[in-house]
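Duplicate of #3305? Posting structure anyway:
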């Protein structure tokens, strides 16, 4: 039975990967909560790998957030992510993992990269200043995987997803990304009976969105079929304006709301669309269209917030199948 470690399993992506892997046979999914294993701690991560010997690693943990979180907490974004990437990649090498899939982000590409952005646009220009710390850490993660491949022959691959959304997303208005933040804003306006919903920026920037269940499927596909040093884009290849997105969410959540765009707030890059032709050539395409994905995500949001039976609690303590050795043996790792 293959041992598969999902690092970051309580998050949006990690929980979707755990759901996706549940469909596979002969596979033991290994997880550890942040409280059990701080992935920034190399000694603890080494100890965990030594005890649990994962053969396949999905490295999808990290400090993640939208424009406000990125611009107000740049130190956390660069420190946490650089350490998490380094400790897990190093331990995967040290304890002989057969393969590791590292997840970056489309933020790695230069602010003025030609659209749609191909993989070769990496490091060809200046980054978007509002999330530069995060992007630098994510680029370092790609280079880390490539360096271990070059020096040790490690089969470590990197995938760069576009904006993601879906069940288990972060709906906090301060730290979340644009799509879940909009769902929440429309929902709260409907609950409060407020007609006006204020959207940050002018509404003109264009963005691409991928349902996290599609991403998880792409990750499983790449873990099985992709073995190149170069990172690979994962997206739909389709974008829409923030205004169009807001109109779509309004139709689903609160059709009688009135949209107001606050142009005093930052827009970010005008367009961010991934070129996904390499992924399409390999044979993978997304299945969940945006409207359908938003409808099911809103449904999840309603059930999760109502505490409905059978709905996973957001960020709950779930899927914990493997205890770190020191939890069962009483041994504390040398730090
Ligand atoms: N969300 C997006 O739109 C998007 C887009 C492109 C790329 N990505 C990439 O996808 C990956 C996952 O993102 P996500 O949206 O799933 O984020 P998320 O929902 O915030 O989940 C992050 C996970 O990492 C864990 N984590 C963070 N710091 C940790 C630490 N020090 N020790 C142990 N665990 C730690 C969190 O644990 P807790 O549950 O304890 O908080 C959580 O389970 C990231 O690499 C991100 O760059 C995300």
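Output from current build:
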């Amino acid at each position: 039975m293959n041992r598969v470690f999902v690092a970051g399993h309580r998050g949006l992506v990690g929980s979707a990967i755990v759901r996706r892997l549940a469909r596979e046979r002969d596979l033991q999914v290994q997880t550890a909560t942040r409280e059990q294993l701080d992935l920034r701690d190399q000694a603890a991560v080494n100890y965990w790998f030594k005890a649990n010997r994962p053969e396949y690693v999905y490295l999808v943990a990290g400090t993640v957030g939208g424009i406000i979180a990125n611009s107000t907490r740049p130190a956390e974004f660069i420190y946490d992510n650089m350490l998490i990437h380094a400790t897990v990649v190093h331990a995967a090498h040290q304890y002989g993992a057969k393969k590791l899939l590292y997840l970056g982000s489309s933020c790695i590409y230069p602010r003025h990269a030609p659209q749609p952005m191909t993989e070769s646009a990496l490091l060809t220009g200046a980054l978007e200043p509002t999330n530069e710390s995060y992007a630098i850490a994510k680029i370092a993660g790609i280079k880390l995987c490539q360096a271990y491949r070059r020096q040790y022959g490690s089969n470590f691959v990197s995938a760069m997803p576009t904006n993601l959304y879906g069940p288990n997303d972060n709906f906090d208005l301060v730290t979340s990304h644009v799509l879940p933040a909009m769902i929440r804003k429309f929902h709260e306006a409907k609950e409060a009976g407020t007609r006006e919903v204020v959207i940050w920026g002018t509404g003109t920037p264009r963005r691409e969105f991928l349902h996290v269940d599609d991403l998880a499927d792409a990750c499983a596909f790449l873990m099985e079929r992709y073995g190149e040093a170069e990172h690979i884009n994962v997206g739909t290849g389709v974008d829409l304006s923030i205004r169009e997105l807001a109109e779509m969410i309004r139709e689903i959540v609160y059709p009688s709301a009135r949209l107001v765009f606050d142009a005093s707030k930052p827009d970010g890059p005008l367009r961010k669309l991934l070129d996904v032709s390499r992924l399409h050539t390999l044979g993978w395409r997304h299945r969940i269209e945006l409207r359908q994905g938003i409808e099911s995500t809103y449904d999840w949001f309603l059930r999760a917030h109502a505490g409905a039976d059978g709905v996973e609690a957001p960020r709950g303590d779930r899927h914990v199948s493997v205890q770190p050795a020191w939890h069962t043996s009483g041994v504390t790792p040398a730090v």
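Confirmed duplicate; merging threads. The pocket of NAP is lined by residues 8, 10-14, 33-34, 38-40, 60-64, 80, 84, 103, 105, 161, 163-164, 170, 177, 315 (CB under 6 Å). The chain has eleven helices and 13 strands.
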